[in-house]
Design brief:
Number of helices: 13
CATH class of the largest domain: Alpha Beta
EC number: 2.7.13.3
CATH superfamily of the largest domain: Histidine kinase-like ATPase, C-terminal domain
Structural class: alpha/beta
Radius of gyration: 32 Å
CATH topology of the largest domain: Heat Shock Protein 90
Strand content: 15-25%
Pfam families: HWE_HK, PAS_3
Largest sheet: 5 strands, antiparallel
Helix content: 40-55%
CATH architecture of the largest domain: 2-Layer Sandwich
Keywords: ATP-binding, Chromophore, Flavoprotein, FMN, Kinase, Nucleotide-binding, Phosphoprotein, Photoreceptor protein, Receptor, Repeat, Sensory transduction, Transferase, Virulence
Strand order of the largest sheet: 2-1-5-4-3
GO molecular function, one term: kinase activity
Shape: elongated
Protein name: histidine kinase
């Protein structure tokens, strides 16, 4: 078998062909014999050179979805006597998938008849994978940016809703945005690694200046949290410390806070918060934004219990390694004929803002539910309509969408994905609202879906 090029090639070209990473080939169209350098066959997964090579062998390596396209390009190039170029995915001799870039052109005799095809092939697998990773990272970055904008927007709206004056609003909002920024810095510093619980605690404690001498932190330093749990814990601890500084143990000169982190025998994690020496604790009033955030931030990733003891607030936070099925108490329906809406949203602040907006618009809101298991449990009571966030931590709400479709319940998808980024399987044909959204547009879309569902029921006689 001959894998060297004809003798009329200059010697320096033979040297380049032997040492480069380019697969070179020349096909005699009359005999069907293809001359190649060794690198050509190696690109297709062969350790040594094959005895023969042909366009049939080449096309057998092209993945099925591209075979007709690539074969057509080659036939058209030969028929028209024109150069060609393409990229395609191939299946190598070892069975792994790779990407190649191929270019070729015909050679003619004195009468203008094609005698040879010559060309080269490059292995572009690494660059294709980098390209795919860049696309994935760009999509994820876009999703995070849009989601963060929605979180900030929700913080502004809810903080304003509960603020007594503009000064309090400014101070509280600024502090909450700082907490969100600290969480983001910890998560992006090591994007592929979890964040340590103790690091979160100590970072938040350090923000309270001289008061930190009256805050004790004990427990292991090697307990890590996934990103969503880390963000929720940052926000909860910020609100607990803020409340302690305003009304609790850090509001006088004698109080203190003890924070104990524990790894339990069942591999769950606990954080026990205990205030002492501060003003006497009274009966808690209606929860403002901070209180609601503390109560709901860990929905779907853990559990939080508060004990308003006279001698000081005690809080117990449990964070299992596996997310529990956690169903929020259902709100009472003040209006019996209010449309029941299932809300699935894992960002606690966005969920709180949506609940407030939807309830003010006349919906009876069930949720927000932060994971698929909780949402599926909630479907034991049939909703009239649902509003679904797509990405719920490491899972999507696609199973909920499929179940709603099977039940004949209309739903709207609220997504932080770019408009040209397709939704995952399971959301085909869904009504979509992009984050950050406008309330009037969201409410109009929900009403449109309710009206369409009602019309369908009338048409089917149900």
């Amino acid at each position: 078998m001959n894998t060297s090029f004809p003798n009329h090639r200059a010697s320096h070209l033979d040297l380049i062909a032997a040492t480069s990473d380019i697969g070179l080939w020349e096909l005699d169209v009359r005999t069907g014999v293809a001359e190649r350098n060794l690198r050509h066959d190696q690109i297709f997964g062969y350790v040594g050179a094959l005895d023969r090579w042909s366009d049939e062998i080449f096309l057998s390596h092209v993945v099925a979805r591209d075979r007709e396209r690539v074969g057509g390009l080659l036939r058209a190039a030969v028929a028209a006597g024109e150069p060609w170029a393409f990229e395609t995915e191939i299946l190598s001799a070892q069975g792994d998938r790779r990407w190649i870039s191929a270019k070729g052109q015909p050679r003619f005799d004195g009468s203008g008849k094609i005698t040879h095809l010559i060309g080269h092939v490059l292995d572009i697998t690494a660059s294709k994978r980098r390209e795919e990773r860049l696309k994935l990272l760009s999509g994820e970055l876009n999703h995070r940016v849009l989601n963060t904008i929605s979180v900030i927007r929700a913080m502004v709206r809810i903080s304003a809703h509960n603020a007594g004056n503009i000064e309090d609003f400014t101070v509280d909002l600024d502090a909450r945005l700082d907490a969100l920024a600290r969480s983001s810095r910890m998560l992006t510093r090591n994007p592929d690694k979890d964040t340590f619980l103790r690091e979160i605690v100590e970072t938040e404690v350090a923000m309270f200046g001289s008061g930190t001498t009256r805050i004790g932190v004990t427990g292991p330093t090697d307990i890590s949290l996934e990103p969503r749990s880390a963000e929720a814990m940052t926000l909860v601890l910020h609100e607990l410390l803020t409340n302690a500084a305003k009304h609790g143990a850090l509001s006088n000169d004698d109080g203190r806070i003890d924070i104990a982190i524990t790894r339990n025998p069942d591999n769950s994690l606990s954080l026990n918060w205990e205030e002492s020496g501060g003003p006497e604790v009274g009966t808690p009033g209606p929860a403002g934004f901070g209180g609601a955030l503390i109560a709901n931030a860990l929905n779907g990733v853990g559990d939080l219990q508060r004990d308003y003891r006279r001698e000081g607030l005690r809080v117990k936070i449990s964070l299992p390694y596996q997310r529990p099925v956690h169903v929020l108490p259902r709100p009472s329906d003040n209006i019996s004929d209010a449309p029941r809406l299932l809300l699935v949203e894992d960002e606690v602040v966005i969920g709180m803002d949506l609940s407030l907006t939807l309830e003010e618009a006349g919906f009876s809101v069930d949720g927000p539910h932060a994971d698929v298991a909780a949402a599926m449990r909630a479907l034991n009571v049939m909703p009239d309509i649902a509003l679904l966030d797509v990405q719920l931590g490491k899972e999507t709400s696609a199973p909920v969408a499929e179940r709603l479709r099977a039940l004949g319940v209309p739903f709207v998808v609220l997504s932080g994905r770019a408009s040209d980024d397709p939704l995952p399987p399971g959301f085909e044909g869904a009504a979509v609202m992009q984050k950050p959204h406008r309330d009037c547009a969201l409410l109009a879309l929900l009403q449109q879906c309710l009206d369409a569902a009602a019309e369908d029921r009338r048409g089917s006689g149900t």
